[in-house]
Sequence to fold (266 residues):
Amino acid sequence: MDHLDELEAESIYILREAYKNLGKLGLLWSIGKDSTVLLWLVKKAFYGHTPFPFIHVDTSFEMPEVIEYRDKTAKELNLDLIVYTNEQAVKDGMNPKLGRLMCCGALKTVALNQVVKKYGFDGLIVGVRQDEEGSRSKERIFSERDQKDKWDYTNQPPELWDEFKTDFPKGHHIRVHPLLHWTELDIWEYIQRENVPIIDLYFAKNHRRYRSLGCAPCTGSVPSDAKNVSEIIAELKGTNVSERAGRAQDKEDAYAMQKLRQAGYM
Fold:
């Protein structure tokens, strides 16, 4: 069993533990590489089935390619897809010009918390990784959110020897992170090995590509000539540029992601 086999086995075990021990589950699907790998792992874990809905929080500022890929893939795989937008915030004119942190809070964090309550989810499966961003390195695999959707990163149970806390107070919901121990390079090597179909925004055009996907006004591309998965892997092995170098909200506030995640962000 090689490194990717071990990561895959751990992720499948986590998915099955969540399905066995938690109540109503949903999977957050951003259409990016991580959550699309998670989709692939779900189908492996449940023998070709996807036994819970996939949730896309649509901020109304998504890239057109994201919407096209989402709808095409959901139809091809017959996914139970929930697309949710904080319509009131959009109606009130929320946009990045009012402040990127404020905009993310309204169109992503609040929207996600609304989804949890509207559909009565007990757990959300999320494709976050510890190496992607500082606040995510503080996460647990089974991570509690209280009745107000808040995350207390200072009060989390240990997770030793693949023993996870899965009983939580009524009214709380759980974020489940099957990819927490994967790296960006692991993700791309797994995509290559499994031939996972990925949105082509990750591949270079005119010497630029995206390494991380978000809303169109807040996500920039990075210089690159990597036009396929093999070239991306080679590029990552030699880069010292952060994966989120193109994400504008990270530049607005050094603690932006931690503040958003404390309030319930994915």
